[in-house]
Amino acid sequence: xxxxxxxxxxxxxxxxxxxxxxxxxxxxxxxxxxxxxxxxxxxxxxxxxxxxxxxxxxxxxxxxxxxxxxxxxxxxxxxxxxxxxxxxxxxxxxxxxxxxxxxxxxxxxxxxxxxxxxxxxxxxxxxxxxxxxxxxxxxxxxxxxxxxxxxxxxx
Length: 155
Known about the structure:
- The protein has 155 residues and is an alpha/beta fold.
- It has a single domain, classed as Phosphotransferase system, sorbose subfamily IIB component (Fructose Permease), CATH 3.40.35.10.
- Helices cover 37% and strands 26% of the residues.
- It contains six helices and nine strands, in the order βαβααβαβαβββαββ.
- The strands form two sheets. The chain has a seven-stranded mixed beta sheet with strand order 3-2-4-1-5-8-9. Strands 6-7 form a two-stranded antiparallel sheet.
- The longest helix is centred in the C-terminal third of the chain and has 12 residues.
- The chain is globular and about 40 Å long.
């Protein structure tokens, strides 16, 4: 069962690995990111970042969508992590079963507007986020489970 869907440009890092994995009891992490899935060095680095005993899959968007029927049959707590809003939006449009998404980190870049401590969105990222909201998906910003959840709705 998918316990957490998270948007974080850093993919796997300390906060995700230690705080969220234990909080949701994740037995499997599925990273959906075309760049990471097609770069052997990034895949190796991500594999080293995962907690011991937790399974890790690193998929392209296309592969993740194709694997979802099998993922649904797994008797595991699953955390999904997306590296960018475009991939997340495309996934949710093709797989309309996602009901809630945790916005954990979007990098500060030229032209980006800050929405929370670690959430900076360009116009394109804001458009992707509005689309997710239009689909009825509940969005919230939260760095780690110990932070207060902030609803993300006024984009």
